[in-house]
Amino acid sequence: MSEMSLEDSFEAYLESVTLARSANTARTYANALTSFATTLLDHNIDPQQASTSQADENWILLFITDLNLHAPATERLYLTAVAGWYEFLAAERLATLNLPRLRLLIRRRARRPGQRLPQFPRRAIEEILDYAMKLASKPSEDERHRLRLLRDRAFLLTLADTGLRVHEACALRRGDVDWAEARAVLIGKGDRQAVVRFSRRAISALKDYLTTRAKLDGGSGRPLRSLPLFARHDKAAGKKVLPISTTTGRAIVAARTRQALGEDAVGTVTPHSFRHYFVTTVLRGSGGNLKLAQELARHRSIAVTQRYAHLSDDELDRGYYDIFDNRSDRSEG
Description:
The chain is mainly α. It has two domains: about 5-110, DNA polymerase, domain 1; about 120-305, hpI Integrase, Chain A (Orthogonal Bundle), CATH 1.10.443.10. Helices cover about 60% and strands about 5% of the residues. The chain has 15 helices and three strands. The chain has a three-stranded antiparallel sheet with strand order 1-2-3, with no helix packed on it. Helix 7 (about 145-160) crosses helix 12 (about 270-285).
């Protein structure tokens, strides 16, 4: 069985789609594969490095979870596109796959037409952030535990106030941050640069964390600029300054969610929820300025930003009663 990188297989599959389908369909399939690649990256699977022989039907479940932010019709189109990629791998003998199981997973987990988008847990995230702010004042068992408390506070505030994806946050180095300007420059695919801005509270939390980490960083024998912004603080890492993985990033979110909200809340808030929080916060604070939100979130298409612009039921309730109850009060007066 031959194999290639996942990224190369995406390109080969899309070439076959371009030859057989309309230009609009080809663009939709390309968008679907880009979204799928982002899901894989968020789960520590790099399409540039992973090979087609590693392809797993269970990846579709990760993708379905992320597609909850899309309309059901878009979800169906994207799942059709990615299912076609799996079929392409099997036909070209690039991977050993159980296609009937893949189709069963899609049927069982995908939403049906007319099914509502889940409500975004804004209040839950704000409670988690309130809890995170208090981590610095919690008693610590030892130096390693103290560093984890400060790291997790800085990590959660960074996710919420920058809009960074979890793999981007985990990959940051100290030298990536311009502390005077409170921003970082990311180098993405195709050597594209993007500027990410940090809030005052995120910068303050990061400085607290790195100040406490100074002895560990100083003893590493490496230039400070090259060290990870968020490091591991477990026994296995010892005195080495190693970056956290996306798996660790997800574990931080899960653990602090459990502590802030209880066991039942675990799984309802993910690292991507913080990115959603960031975009909706920008939209609310800017009076619905989609272009501003698109630029700050680094969305290539404003259509992606628009899917974050829905209002939750409680916001609709407040808007309704502010208008009609206030009008009634004025009439009665």
